[in-house]
Design goal:
The complex is a heterodimer of chains A (327) and B (189).
Chain A lengths: L9 H34 L15 H10 L11 H19 L16 H9 L1 H13 L2 H32 L4 H6 L9 H4 L1 H14 L11 H4 L9 H26 L11 H21 L5 H29 L2
Helix pairs in contact in A: 1-2, 1-11, 1-12, 2-11, 3-4, 3-5, 3-11, 5-6, 6-9, 6-13, 9-11, 9-13, 11-12
Chain B lengths: L29 H13 L11 H9 L22 E5 L7 H10 L5 E5 L1 H5 L23 E3 L6 H16 L19
Helix pairs in contact in B: 1-5, 2-5
Classes of the chains: A mainly alpha (327), B mainly alpha (189).
Chain lengths: 327, 189
């Protein structure tokens, strides 16, 4: 009756991967809060967090402990169960999205040849969480924010899928490892260089999908107080924040794998190349947030339906023709 | 805190007065409590909430020259549910008073209030016999932790108010005091 625990067992690997992923997400959440506030400071010609710990390094930790110690309130008019299910639902699918990410050639949590589909499917669950949060709050700002989140998510998933599909055409696979391997180590072999329009559309849609400025309409504070998370205090709000950063890491990881050659580099291919590319994309997203003002809601939807979607369709058709002609 | 003026209490359906029952702790948690206190002092998120011209100084304190972000307090939250500090920056009208009280009650504990400028402290230049519009001191409505005088106070004064609040929360002065500055000792609860 002895059970042997070995690394070959898929269940053991899954549990190990989940623990690793949660540690990775929490640690990155702390780092990203610090980076975000520092970058915000530098964009506005001020130092940002400076005195709490050396160079303000303890700031995110202190913030997290404070949020844990804050009173939790449930609105009387809201739906108690939906209200508290929403932050968990926002955070949990993110963990699944990490499973198929190709951190390194041998570093994989699960063997799956549809990794891309898995990520796209579960990243859509996030918007349900935002919807539940807005509805469960019983708050007009919350409901308006949730409605915006749904409209935005539907609008931007279409060009996102089309741009990803172009990469799938070029590599002939939906497995993130195969897609990574089909690109070379040098920048001119990456799909970002071979198909720059698809990369541009992907980045714009990724920013919109993660509800980051300039597309942070669901939580537009000048119009909607705080949007879908208006009624959340303490760690309820903290979990939404963590989920937003985790989503950012996922889309940056997907961008690195699909368009930037993943873990391959000119010298010494490995996980450090993947992480370097991931953080470069993250920095770009943070930089965008502190550079551009928020768009209006009609501008947001017009950009998606009238510009990005037709262009993405053309790019897809062009890619298909090029792949066919090129062999 | 001065006794509450019943004529200024929020009306229209009425908010039930907050009843706070604090039970004595079962275990001695004072070291943990001290760490949590320091964390709270170093991460004071103010509410985006300005009533009059003092709010201009409050905006200046977040900008490049004074940069309240250095002390971790630049996260101005638009929702009272996520904020720790209410900076009453400006004149409180009688018409505004119920909204101020409601916002205060919407904030989750622990929460603090800073009265910024003479109007919020005592009615300031609007305090005169026969005036009917201005609440003479926001502390007649809600408990105030820190008073920052000035008309309006300079951003440095607001920063000093923040330091005094940090002193009050954590029981320690964290930042050096300028030479010759008439800085009073914060009342430590």
């Amino acid at each position: 009756m002895s059970m042997t625990i070995s690394l070959a067992d898929p269940l053991v690997r899954l549990v190990l991967a989940l623990v690793g992923i949660f540690a990775f997400v929490a640690l990155n959440g702390l780092v990203l809060v610090y980076v975000e506030r520092k970058v915000a400071g530098f964009c506005q010609r001020r130092p940002g967090p400076l005195h709490v710990g050396p160079q303000g390094l303890l700031q995110p930790l202190v913030d997290a402990l404070k949020l844990v110690g804050k009173q939790l309130l449930t609105p009387a008019k809201g739906d108690r169960i939906l209200f508290w299910a929403a932050p968990l639902l926002a955070f949990l699918p993110v963990a699944l999205c990490f499973l198929p990410l190709p951190f390194d050639a041998s570093l994989k949590a699960i063997e799956i040849n549809l990794g891309l589909v898995l990520i796209l499917a579960f990243s859509g669950v996030n918007v349900i969480a935002l919807c539940l949060a807005g509805w469960g709050s019983g708050n007009k700002w919350g409901i308006l924010g949730a409605a915006r989140a749904v409209a935005q998510s539907v609008a931007y998933e279409v060009p996102l899928l089309l741009s990803v599909l172009a990469v799938a055409f070029m590599s002939g696979s939906l497995d993130l490892f195969v897609i990574t391997e089909s690109q070379g180590a040098w920048p001119w072999q990456w799909y970002a260089m071979k198909n720059p329009l698809a990369f541009l559309i992907f980045i714009i849609c990724a920013v919109a999908e993660t509800n980051r400025a300039p597309f942070d309409l669901p939580e537009a504070e000048s119009e909607l107080t705080a949007g879908f998370h208006t009624e959340y205090s303490g760690m309820g709000f903290g979990l939404f924040f963590l989920a937003e950063y985790a989503n950012m890491i996922v889309v940056s990881g997907v961008a690195a794998a699909l368009f930037l050659g993943g873990y391959q580099g000119p010298v010494a291919s490995g996980i450090w190349w993947f992480l370097a590319k991931l953080y470069a994309v993250l920095l770009l997203i943070i930089w965008l947030r502190w550079t551009y003002p928020r768009v209006r809601f009609d501008q947001l939807l017009n950009l998606s339906w009238k510009r990005l979607t037709p262009v993405a369709l053309l790019v897809l058709a062009g890619t298909a023709v090029a792949v066919r002609l090129g062999g | 805190m001065a006794p509450q003026d019943p004529s200024l209490a929020p009306q229209l359906g009425g908010i039930a007065p907050t009843v706070v029952n604090v039970e004595p702790a079962l275990v001695n948690m004072s070291p943990v409590q001290r760490i949590v206190d320091v964390c709270r002092a170093m991460s004071i998120w103010p509410m985006t909430f300005g009533l009059a011209c003092c709010a201009i100084e409050m905006m200046a304190v977040g900008m490049a020259r004074f940069d309240i972000a250095r002390f971790g307090a630049e996260v101005f939250r638009p929702s009272p549910r996520q904020s720790d500090l209410m900076i009453v920056a400006g004149t409180v009208n009688r018409k505004m008073a119920p909204a101020v009280v409601r916002l205060y009650e919407q904030m989750p504990a622990p929460k603090w209030v800073m009265a910024l400028g003479n109007c919020a402290i005592s009615g300031g230049p609007f305090k005169c016999p026969g005036q009917y519009a201005v609440v003479e001191g926001v502390d007649t409505l809600i408990p105030v932790d820190i008073y920052v005088p000035g008309c309006p106070p300079r951003p440095e004064a607001l920063l000093e108010g923040l330091f005094q609040l940090q002193h009050k929360i954590s029981g320690r002065r964290w930042w050096p005091v300028a030479k010759g500055a008439p800085v009073g000792k914060a009342e430590v609860a």
